[in-house]
Fold this protein.
Amino acid sequence: MQRSGYFSAAFFPLLMLVAGAQQALACGSGNILYEDKMVDTEDESWGWGEDPVRSVGSKGITWDLQPGVPWTTLNQTSLYNDFEVCAKIKMKYPEKSAGYAGVAIWGVDSKNNYTVDLFPADGAVGIYRAQNGKYLKPVPYFKTDAVKKEQGATNEISIVVVGKHAVVTVNGKKVKEFNGIPPAEGGLVGLDFGTITEDSGPSTITYWDFQVREPPPPEEAPAPSKKKT
């Protein structure tokens, strides 16, 4: 299943973290530009106010969402050009679920951005562009065994962006690369997650270890796909 084709997202600013090197499996070794551990405290650069569906604790920041609640939240710390953004995510979902959780890149505002989302119940990835408040699908929705489908399993996502090119890695496996249209003067990064109205019950989504880094050096960067000529 996929998220609905119409844009509906709450705008807040955002970003997440990383702990020690032993935990930083999702990201490369580029210099850290921003990090939010999302553990025991909330970074004000997200702009979140009081919200009964959100809680913060020793295991990350958690949202308890009823069906039909989409969120796109962009962090206001900085604009980025070439970068790597990564996060760790856990999701518990009902029997019937098209809930998703991922990250946002190339953000201008809540109506203009790109998002890369994991759909744990379906073992799939969706890549979307929000343009003037409507969703486009620059990359077809696809399934991959890189996404862990077990309830509450940790999925690690990384996106390396150089120029207009983005490489998506899930749990250490490169799953897709694509070209987009980044903002000319740099874009915001953030979180993208939610549920759809057809879900059979509530979902719980937890983020932690969110980082933005300089792109990894060439020897560490995901190798480009080789296309037959």
Q: What stands out?
A: The chain has one domain: 10-213. The mean pLDDT is 88.
